[in-house]
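Job type: complex structure
Entries:
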Amino acid sequence: MLSQDKTLLLFLLGLLLFASPLLEWWTRPGAPWYLPYLLWGLIIALAALAQWYRGPHDL
Amino acid sequence: MISEISLLYGVGVAYLAVLFFIAHATEKGWLPDGWVHHPLIYTLSLGVYATSWSFYGSVGFAMTEGYQFLTIYLGVTLAFLLAPLLLAPLLRLVREYQLTSLADLFAFRYRSQWTGVIVTLFMLAGILPYIALQIKAVTESVSVLTRQEPPHLLALGFCATLTLFAILFGARHITPREKHQGLVVAIAFESAVKLLALLAVGGFALFGVFGGFGELNAWLTAHPEALEALYAPVQEGPWMTLMVLAFAAAFLLPRQFHMTFVENMDPRALQMATWAFPLFLLLLNLPIPLILWAGQATALDVAPDYYVLGLPVAADQSWLALFTFIGGISAASAMMIVTTLALAAMCLNHLILPAHYRQQALPRTNLYGWLLWGRRVLILLIIGLGYGFYWLLEFNQGLAQIGLISFVAVAQFLPGILGLLFWPRANRVGFIAGLTGGILVWLLALIVPLIHDSGLPMVDINLMVWMGAGEDNRWAFATFWSLTLNSLLFVAGALLTRPTPEELEAAQNCRREQLTPSRLLGDGEMRSVEQLRANLSQVIGPQTAALEIQRALTDLKLDGSERRPSELRRLRARLERNLSGLMGPLLARMIMDNRLEVPPQTQVALADSLRFVEEQLEHSTGRLKGLAAELDTLRRYHRQVLHELPLGVCSIAPGGDILIWNNTMAAISGMSSSFAVGQTLDGLKDPWDGVLRTFINGDDRHLYKLQLTVDGRQRRLNLHKAAIESAGLGSSVAHGLGGMVVLVEDLTELHNLESEVAHNDRLASIGRLAAGVAHEIGNPLTGIASLAQNLRYEKDPAEVELTASQILEQTRRINDIVQSLITFSHAGEVPRPRPAPVNMRTCVAEAIHLVQLSDSSREIDCLNEVPDNLIARGHAQRLLQVFVNLINNALQASRPGDRIIIRGDYILGSVALQVEDEGSGIPESMLDRIFEPFFTTKPAGEGTGLGLSVVYSIIQDHGGTVYADTPPGGGTCFHIRLPALEEELDSSLAKNAR
């Protein structure tokens, strides 16, 4: 997958999690307090993984 | 409990001194390079984003807005996820064009002095509340620690101290350029301190207040409203608005722009920052809910904004409280130092310098010192203005609310930055109109009500009230309407007016689509570095001009004696970029244009275009995809082939600039490719300048066996040339291409090898002649011995005289033989004399004489039928070798009683000779191969196979031809053509005519 595609996919995933009606799911009553951090950490982990597979000039 | 304000002040100053020591140690190289340049340092330095608002204000923000406080960091995360598309291009632009601020970037793209002025003034106005916020946070944190109202002097003392440190950090050196490695490391250290302090307080809240995870969960189960208060506002509040604001702030806030782009030492560090910086922010925010709940659980009697500090104070944890206070100082001081440095650079480049330049008031001596002092005064003024803002306005709002005013302000640059990166049609009219609209809404919706609420005399205008919006939607309202109006005006302005050529050029630079370099000087504008220095001195003074030119020369690895037009053009472009780093892009261009004007019709030289395209493609490694990547690979392959070709290749543009000079050409000429490319022919070393010019301007497409002395060494070269038809190139990039390609074939080695072969062949011939020579010398020696014997007893003087004469005669005979051998063995040695007239009959007679020394010639007649007047142009000794070899060859093929006849005549203006024998002949199938080296029909050990090859080589060298055929009567006939001597030819033709 091209690095620009990875970038856009990650960005879209970020939008999906934090700027879409999916907000209602993770802010539902009874959700653990650390859930936002967990989702945030997931995005960061994916970004680190994508960066790992990018070439040295791929930025 | 800490109750002494002076103690806290002392701790603060001591901490700042430690920071300064870290910066100083970095600049002195006391810290290991591996640490200083590690991407983690760059990532941590971006932590300047987290100010007092994050450090103290997040808890208060979480209290009122729940998990919405996370948007301020989630927006940044989204911006960094887009780093390859958003941040990396900006970083490239800033580095490549040495831009020092957002105002520089916009002025570079939207090409207007007004752009820089408006951006600077608005940024200044937009950031002042943020600076005031830091002052407020520090003074209130002191109040929390000491439990007493801090004196107003404390805020002033804090500002004065920070002014001093900001100057020490960023305006200490005599060259006020934006690259402060020490500052980056110090800010990274501050980020680490902030993070550790917050994690420590978070840890204390979890384990010190609650007693562990289990107890925390139990407390949350007992108080479900606490968790509900965090989640509920997310669905009701301005979540999306805050995300957009944080997304813009991530790279548009002056301090973020400064640390992300301007202070970046290595673009690769941004790779790690794309995930490590969001991770830093996550860790920074992880303790916030814990601290909030701990504060609620212990019913702290301080404002939630200061729970971070209040928690250890209430628990009497003095050391933790002091560490937290230092964390708060870190957050505030980092923001204020970096922001003031960035704003000072903007004010200097876009307000102060242009005004002085217009009034021709730039100092002629010590410009650097003037700029440095200008920057120091501006730092003082900006912090002073921030203090004034803090002092005048009574902030009744939380820290986050004040910070958000600045966030809405910087978000107004979002349409401009997107246009800069992605929309070539965007122009200054649209940008200024959009920004003005956005500023207007920002002022009316946020600033005027803020001033009014502070009790200052201000008309009571509130845009939200006018438009019937509720106060709850303040941020969404201000952000939506300011950005909407901004974007609409930006697009409308761009669509209704046309971008100027300069803007189009800048747009291409921003999108890296430009395939020709920016305007550069045409030929004839600059002749030397000295001239450039003299012109520049008139504006920035001789001292600064000399330093700047030296810096540009060093950057390009050139020296002051450079005269190549293409290199001088590069030097000018480099100089403009360097001046841009010093004085901003617009002023740099104004100075360069005014002093080194570009004629309107000047075309960019082809050499520059090609080099520019090459450089662009080199930078594009890894970015080209699909067909473009394949084409680039093909281009690199072709270039490599061209450079590794064992022929010298040199291409010359129509203007006379050298475009290609491959490795072999460099080896032959003794001039490296880096020296030759970009030179005109005049700039090449002797004798190449004259040789190439004469050859290119001449009619001949080939020049054979050219003898040149290069670096004291004789070289023998073949030159070939071809015109490059521009019509065949068929590309807009190739417009104006064409010119000439010259191939240079180095024959020196081959020639030396041939000489050696010929020499070996002569030695072999002498070996073959040895027996005959011995015999020939033996006869006269015997005669001399007999005569000398008789002489002993001879008394008659007449007889003695006769005998002596006979002895002398025999001696002369021996001498003749020896001389012939010497002459023969030395034939063909380099350096050779110039071609001279050679009497062919004499030459053939000499050859027959030599050959007849051998035994094999005893019973074979050699007839010399060459006429006396047959004169060729050549080298007598080398032609002698030709005939020795041919006659020897004939002798070996002949039987006893056969004859060898050598004939000659003038035919069609040249000397024609035939060497014919009556021997066994050569089979027709072998006739084509007999001149090849080492080809022989003789049994092994009897022939070297070099004789005829040497003949061929010598005749070729003379510009003649040689071939063999089989006459009808049998045997072999060698036909030779040699250039005749003109005068002899004329007289021969005249004789024939009579």
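Summary: The first helix of chain A runs from residue 3 to 18. The two ends of chain A are 14 Å apart (CA to CA).
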